[in-house]
Amino acid sequence: MSGHAPVTARLCAEEVRERVAALPDPELPVIGLGDLGVVHSVAPGADGVLEVEIIPTYLGCPALPEITAVVREVLTACGHPDGRVRHVLTPAWTTDRITPEGRRALAAHGIAPPVSPAPDGPVPVALGAVPCPHCGSTATRPHSDFGPSRCQSVLWCTACREPFPHLTALGGTP
């Protein structure tokens, strides 16, 4: 007995995608990779081998090796031990890729998600545009550019006087 679970069948690309999307982000475990918007595609490559394309949240993301390892484990468990994980830079990841469910999960765990602008409206850039996940006040101010991970800063709510992490906006959102 090798200690590995036997593979009974190869799962299709959509089933593999669902399993990969459900994996928690190593730095933000309250959100899955799918809701974070980093799973670009799951499809057979030109040679027929299943490939999972991951969009890094930014260059040099320290979580990429761990994400790659757990995605490879999913590929193997789904009957694709020869599957590949590729990091793609196009399209670039932006905070616009975070799903509404992902934004709710971040807020529910005290992490302020980036503010989404109205589809046709201006992009808010003033201080106080980020609501406090504790009390909902927009009377928030920067506290530190350095948060619990490289992709987060810390804001301070002047209403409830609580600090909170804020997922740094990249792309079209503030």
Automatic annotation (TrEMBL):
Per UniProt, residues of the MIP18 family-like domain are 14-77
The PaaD zinc beta ribbon domain sits at 129-167
Pfam annotation, one family: Zn_ribbon_PaaD
The transmembrane residues are none
PANTHER family listed in its UniProt record? 1,2-PHENYLACETYL-COA EPOXIDASE, SUBUNIT D-RELATED, FE-S PROTEIN MATURATION AUXILIARY FACTOR YITW
Protein name listed in UniProt:
Phenylacetate-CoA oxygenase subunit PaaJ
Q: Which organism is it from?
A: Streptomyces griseoincarnatus
User: In the UniProt record, what gene is named as encoding this protein?
Assistant: paaJ
